[in-house]
Amino acid sequence: MHTRELLHDKLTRAFSPIQLDVIDDSAAHRGHKGAGAGGHFDVRIVAAAFEGKGLVARHRLVYQVLADEMAGPVHALALRTLTPGEAEAETAAAADEASGRIIANV
Questions:
Q1: What pLDDT digit, counting tens, does each position of 38-80 carry?
Q2: C or N: which end of the chain has fewer Cβ atoms within 10 Å?
Q3: DSSP-derived 3-state class of residue 80
């Protein structure tokens, strides 16, 4: 199983995410350690398991699940860990921006 699929499988089993994107970004790091073996990944995961947890706690949860991969084939992991509410707000903000609306938080 390719590392990307392994990461996707483990994260799915651990968090039952609403959304999960695992992107192998290794080609962008050509010449850098871990680049050729699929060692650089970007992960965006939306899961209720992150509710009430800060950023560091969320990342620790992910790193616990992927401990074996982090010790082996994964050299770098960029994480975007969101709750369902945060993902919804992010989507709404992007839609507002795309429509040209200007929103200011006062």
A1: 689 999 999 999 999 999 999 999 999 999 999 988 989 999 9
A2: C
A3: strand
- Characterise 36 by phi-psi region: left (phi > 0), alpha (psi -120 to 50), beta (else): alpha
Amino acid at 39: G
What was the pLDDT predicted at 27? 73
Non-local (6+) Cβ contacts of 16 within 8 A are 47, 48, 49
Candidates 95, 59, 60, 65; CA nearest to 79 is: 59
Q: Is the backbone of residue 102 left (phi > 0), alpha (psi -120 to 50) or beta?
A: beta
User: CATH for 3-98, among 3.30.300.90, 3.30.450.30, 3.20.20.70, 3.30.750.24?
Assistant: 3.30.300.90
Best CA proximity match to 62, nearest among 10, 3, 1: 10
Give the DSSP letter string of 3-53: HHHHHHHHHHHHH--SEEEEEE-GGGGTTSTTTTTT-EEEEEEE-GGGTT-
